[in-house]
Amino acid sequence: MRTRAVPTRWQGLGKALPVLWGLYSGSGSVPYRVCVDLAAGSAKCTCPSRKFPCKHAISLQELDLPDALPPDWVEEWTTRRATRELDSSPEAVARRVRAREKTAANRAAAMSSGIDGLRDWLLDVASAGIASLPGRPASWWQAFIARMIDAQVPGIAGAVAEIQEIVARSGPRWTSDVADRLGGLHLLCFVQPRSRLGVTIPEETVRATPGVLDTWVALLRLETDDGRVRTVRQWCWGRETARWVVAIRHSAVGAPVPLLPHGQESKALVHPYPNSDRVALGDLEGSRPPSPVPAPQSWRTALTTLEQMLLADPWQRLFPLGCSTVRLHGSTLVDTTGHGLPVRDDSGLDMALALTGGVPFDAWGLWDGHALRLGAIAVDGTLEVVA
């Protein structure tokens, strides 16, 4: 699928939200015409694939598309769809209901099969033992990941790929980390939250729901690249709501643009995704340099604030965490009570030491249960993003 995200394979790319389009050069002499309506959750492609949506329609949604006027073939498709939707006769309404029910039933059946496959896979791992995982060939991992993708549960596929990466990295804690991930997958078999299974909701649908107006400080950021899509995640603090939200952007071409100006505080309306701390951006009224953000007085107090996040989402692996007046001792950030948390020795820590000169500072970072990834600091009331 990686080659389908290469821009040279695409021509005539554009968007006029909620519609996206492009021409994909496949194996034939005539490029495939690919069109996606995000609001309607519909797609059209001239390729011979029987899957819906096809791989080209999925890849199109991962590209960073320029705003443009729809070409004639896109206008024709959207007009034809609109005409069909305008048919409000009982027969047409019944057909659409049946089609939606059939699509939902097919996906439910595929997902159920995927969950059954996950249970069998977990039994196989438990029978052989965690110690057997380093000896498993890459094909064993990839076969199961592909099976989960075919079962339309990409969230499980990503979780298994993460376990494979932990095993490959090894390290002193790999067995406990893998056991933790396996336990999470076992719980997933019974709870099955749609967001963790990978069932996505179009952003336009989320924007149609009620929003939350607040002044959001885009404080922490993490960029990842899976070789196909680059992702930037922002953890933003709301001054009035006193809550964290997560803004996510993806791009298959270049670095994704963060949802909110990073390191700034913005007056904005955000729309929460169902049963998630993720948000979609509504109206952005303006941004300015951030004022100080209050931080807990100790790491112990800070860690207690994570309880509600864990209860809401026990599969969450990264948590925004802050503490005031900390000082670096070796590889640990120690608070005024003498308690400390390990900190990652990376560019964020280097930048923090360069800016503070070793004096105490307020710290915010992403906690993964093992170490803090430092993302922002404050000295004398001045807030600085360091990663």
What is the global morphology? globular
Amount of beta strand:
25-35%
Distance between the termini: 31 Å
Number of helices: 11
Query: Topology as H/E string?
Result: EEEEHHHHHHHHEEEEEHHEEEHEEE
Rg from C-alpha positions?
Answer: 23 Å
* Helix-strand makeup class: alpha+beta
Largest sheet: number of strands, sense, barrel closure? 6 strands, antiparallel
Round the mean pLDDT to the nearest integer and report it.
Answer: 87
* Helical percentage: 25-40%
Strand elements, count: 15
Kindly report the spatial arrangement of strands forming the biggest sheet: 12-11-10-13-14-15
Low-confidence stretches: 1-5
Describe this entry's structure for a reader.
This protein is α+β, with helices and mostly antiparallel strands. It is built from eleven helices and 15 strands. The strands form three sheets. It has a six-stranded antiparallel β-sheet with strand order 12-11-10-13-14-15. A five-stranded mixed β-barrel has the order 5-6-7-9-8. A four-stranded antiparallel β-sheet has the order 1-2-3-4.
Secondary structure layout:
Blueprint: E1 10-16, E2 19-24, E3 32-37, E4 42-45, H1 55-60, H2 72-86, H3 90-128, H4 138-150, H5 154-169, H6 174-191, H7 194-197, H8 203-207, E5 212-225, E6 230-238, E7 244-251, E8 265-272, E9 278-288, H9 299-304, H10 307-312, E10 319-329, E11 332-334, E12 340-342, H11 347-356, E13 361-367, E14 372-379, E15 382-385
Parallel strand pairs: 7-9
Antiparallel strand pairs: 1-2, 2-3, 3-4, 5-6, 5-8, 6-7, 8-9, 10-11, 10-13, 11-12, 13-14, 14-15
Helix pairs in contact: 3-4, 3-6, 4-5, 5-6
